[in-house]
């Protein structure tokens, strides 16, 4: 983002200057986007926040600022549903600039071929070779991925509940893999795990982690990692259900520089920028032109070809306002790893209670119009 800001300043002859301020990985998922919109013209967001953004009106719909043809082209050039995940209630609330989902990671020098199914993952974990990020945020994400892969995604549809049998099976996989791993995994995030995989030979494989292509590029310090599809679960032939992540660029409705912000956002999301400046500076592009480019794939160490099937079959989280509240409380619940490891039944009772409380919330405009999560 810093590189694209410098480029855009040059392209505008200095008329538009953008200064980015970072926040932590956890804050990216849980911080109030409405509060950020009061202080910043542009905010990088996670797509489940879209329902709250629509409810509060803190963002400018991009369909008011961009030509329909431009948005249609971005939608057609989207890996998975990256662009579509920011579309809600008939409006486009952000532009996808980074595409990600949970994928697998391995040391190709130690594990030439990745496990294809979960029983193979568990066998590898019994030999102490699996490291899985299971800190609070990522254990919650892994549960959601496994539920979707088992055919029981969390939908927040009226009358829907979390499938108990599927949730117990998912927690069982997580618990068994964690028992054969380093206890540190229970407080690790993806960056901690990828740093460990690339710097030590004790662990060979992570079954579910958000991918960061800089770990697979030439020149990365430490051993190169290879990213691939997630293990298949159930009888399906595809690695389905991976939780879609990534990042979108939102324009604040509370700030004065809307036109300048829109021009920059469209520049960052455009194919030409994604294929050049964004990728070269270490970004993980959200445009199919990059994911389908053999030259870009070579630069990325095979990241795009390795994870493409998982991205295509990834799962988009609900975007109704209640889901963000549910997700945040679920993350807090997973903060006590001893409980989900040793008391899965009572743990799921508490998760059900949160879901029933938050799942009843529906997104409405002040006038009472119901939004549809399209």
Describe this structure as you would to a colleague.
The chain has 374 residues and is mainly alpha-helical. Helices cover 44% and strands 8% of the residues. The chain is built from 17 helices and eight strands. A three-stranded antiparallel sheet has the order 1-8-4. Strands 6-5-7 form a three-stranded antiparallel sheet. A hairpin with a 2-residue loop joins β2 and β3. The longest helix has 16 residues.
Secondary structural class? mainly alpha
The CATH class of the largest domain, by name, is Alpha Beta
Global mean pLDDT: 91
The second-level CATH architecture of the largest domain is 3-Layer(aba) Sandwich
The percent range for strand residues is 5-15%
Please compute the radius of gyration using only Cα atoms: 20 Å
Overall number of strands: 8
Flag low-confidence runs: 361-374
Strand order in the largest sheet: 1-8-4
Number of helices: 17
Total of domains: 2
SSE string, helix = H, strand = E? HHHEHHEEEEHHHHEEEHHHHHHHH
For the largest beta-sheet, the strand count, sense and barrel status come to: 3 strands, antiparallel
CATH topology of the largest domain: D-Maltodextrin-Binding Protein, domain 2
- What percent of residues adopt helix (DSSP H or I)? 40-55%
| Beginning-to-end CA distance, first to last residue | 28 Å
Shape: globular
CATH homologous superfamily assignment of the largest domain: Periplasmic binding protein-like II
SSE topology sketch:
Elements: H1 2-11, H2 25-30, H3 33-39, E1 42-45, H4 50-56, H5 68-76, E2 87-88, E3 91-92, E4 95-98, E5 102-106, H6 118-126, H7 136-149, H8 164-179, H9 190-199, E6 205-210, E7 226-228, E8 247-251, H10 258-269, H11 271-280, H12 288-291, H13 294-299, H14 303-312, H15 321-334, H16 337-342, H17 344-359
Antiparallel strand pairs: 1-8, 2-3, 4-8, 5-6, 5-7
Helix pairs in contact: 4-15, 6-8, 7-8, 7-15, 15-17
């Amino acid at each position: 983002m810093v590189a694209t800001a410098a480029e855009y300043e040059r392209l505008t002859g200095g008329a538009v200057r953008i200064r980015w301020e970072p926040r932590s990985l956890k804050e990216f998922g849980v911080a109030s986007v409405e509060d950020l919109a009061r202080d910043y013209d542009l905010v990088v967001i996670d797509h489940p926040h879209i329902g709250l953004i629509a409810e509060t009106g803190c963002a400018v719909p991009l369909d008011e600022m961009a030509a329909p043809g431009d948005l249609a082209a971005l939608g057609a050039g989207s890996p998975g549903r990256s662009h579509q995940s920011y579309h809600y209630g008939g409006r486009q609330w952000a532009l996808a600039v980074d595409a990600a989902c949970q994928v697998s990671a391995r040391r190709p020098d130690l594990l030439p071929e990745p496990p294809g199914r979960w029983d193979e993952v568990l066998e590898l974990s019994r030999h102490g070779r699996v490291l899985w990020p299971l800190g609070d945020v990522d254990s919650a994400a892994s549960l959601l991925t496994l539920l979707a892969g088992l055919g029981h995604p969390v939908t927040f549809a009226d009358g829907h509940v979390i499938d108990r049998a599927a949730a117990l099976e998912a927690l069982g996989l997580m618990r068994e893999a964690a028992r054969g791993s380093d206890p540190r995994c229970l407080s690790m995030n993806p960056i901690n795990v990828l740093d460990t995989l690339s710097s030590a030979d004790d662990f060979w494989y992570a079954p579910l982690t958000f991918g960061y292509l800089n770990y697979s590029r030439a020149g990365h310090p430490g051993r190169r990692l290879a990213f691939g599809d997630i293990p298949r679960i159930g009888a399906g032939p595809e690695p389905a259900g991976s939780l879609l992540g990534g990042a979108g660029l939102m324009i604040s409705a509370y700030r004065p520089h809307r036109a300048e912000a829109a021009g920059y956002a469209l520049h960052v999301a455009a194919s030409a920028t994604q294929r050049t400046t964004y990728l070269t500076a270490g970004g993980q592009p959200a445009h199919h032109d990059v994911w389908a480019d053999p030259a870009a794939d070579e630069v990325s160490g095979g990241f795009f070809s390795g994870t493409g099937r998982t991205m295509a079959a990834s799962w988009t989280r609900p975007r109704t306002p209640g889901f963000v509240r549910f997700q945040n409380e679920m993350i807090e619940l997973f903060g006590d790893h001893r409980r989900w490891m040793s008391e899965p039944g009572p743990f799921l009772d508490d998760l059900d209670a949160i879901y029933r409380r938050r799942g009843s919330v529906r997104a409405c405009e002040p006038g009472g119009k119901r939004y549809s999560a399209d």
